[in-house]
C-alpha cells in the first residue's frame, strides 16, 4: 500500500506565479539570486518600501499582503526577514510568521485540488525537510513522527498523538490535516529564518537601516499600548478588552479559587500572547491559593517556549475552551480569545451573549 521511498518528486511545474505566492521556495529565492541582487541593490529596488508596508500591515491588521509580481515579492519577503532579524523582537517575529503562514495556507486553499497537495508536498520535503510517504490513492500520508510534532498547531483533541495511528515512527494523517500541519511548519521555518539571518551591520544600506528604525519604533509604540491595555484589563480597569472567558478565570483566581490545569494554561498562554512577560504573568498567578513560585515559573516559562521543546504555546481556540468547560458565552464572529482582544483593543469589541 505504501511506496518504499519517502522522497517526493513534485508532479506540477512551478512557475513565477507560484514564486510570488510562496516566496520562501528554494526555486523562488534562486530565481532572484540569479539576477545577482545584493543587499546594497535593495536601495535601487522597491524592496525596502514593499517590506515596510508588509510588516506594517502585519503589525496593524495581522495580515501579510502578497505582491503578484515575483520579482518584487521575493526581494520584499527576504527584506522583511532582514528587517525582523535586525529588530530581534521575538513577539514581532512571531506575529509576522503567523500572518505569513496563514497567507501561505490561504494561497494553498485557492490552488486547484491536485496542485494544492503537490505544492504542499513540495514545501514539506524541500523546505521543511519532512519525511513522508503517500498511499497509492493519494489520500493518506504517513509522516515521520518528529515532523508531525513540529507541525501540530496545538497539543489537544485530534492532534494529540494518542488520537493518531502511530506505526514504526510514522503518523498517519489525511490531506486536510497535512495542509494544516504545513501552516505551522511554515511558521516555524520563517521564525528560524529570522533567527538565523545575520547581516554585517556595516553593510546595511542607509535606506534599509532607517526602515529597521521606523518599524522598531512603530512596533514598540503599538506594543506599549497593548501592554497598557492588557495590564489595565487584568486589574479590572479596562475589562472590556479581555474576552469573558479570560475575565472569568481572573475573577476565579482573584477570589482565591483553585484553578484546573486547563484554566491555568488558558490564562498564562493568553497573557503571554498579548505581551505580558513571564514575571508579569506570575504576578497574576500569585493570587492563586496554591501558588509556588518555582513550579509556576517552570510552567509559565514552558508555555512561553523558554524550556523543553522551545515551542511557544498559543491559547486554546474557542471550541477547545468550550470543551474544557471554560466558555459559556458566544462572542460574535470570534473563534479565538486573542481575536477578541485585538478587535477590542482597536475599539471594535465583539458582541457577547451568555449561553444559558
Ligand atoms: S467565545 Fe471564545 S473568546 Fe468568547 S468567551 Fe468563549 S472562548 Fe472566550
Number of separate structural domains: 2
Ranges where pLDDT stays below 50 over 5 or more residues in a row are 1-6
Contiguous helical run count: 15
> What Rg, in angstroms, do the CA atoms define?
22 Å
| Helix content percent band | 55-70%
Strand content: 5-15%
Major sheet attributes: 4 strands, antiparallel
InterPro entries: DNA_primase_C, DNA_primase_lsu_euk/arc, DNA_primase_lsu_PriL
Protein name: DNA primase large subunit PriL
Family: Belongs to the eukaryotic-type primase large subunit family.
GO molecular function: 4 iron, 4 sulfur cluster binding; DNA-directed RNA polymerase activity; metal ion binding
Report on this model:
Residues 238-332 form the DNA primase large subunit C-terminal domain. Its cofactor is [4Fe-4S] cluster. With 356 residues, the chain is mainly alpha-helical. The chain has two domains: 16-130 and 179-214, no CATH class; 236-354, no CATH class. The chain is 56% helix and 6% strand. A four-stranded antiparallel β-sheet has the order 1-2-4-3. A two-stranded antiparallel sheet has the order 5-6. A hairpin with a 2-residue loop joins strand 3 and strand 4 (170-174). Helix 3 (47-61) packs across helix 4, helix 4 (70-87) packs across helix 9 (206-234) and helix 6 runs parallel beside helix 8 (175-196). The chain is globular, with a radius of gyration of 22 Å. Mean pLDDT is 85; it is low at 1-6. The site of iron/sulfur cluster (SF4) has 12 residues, from helix 10, helix 14, strand 5 and helix 15.
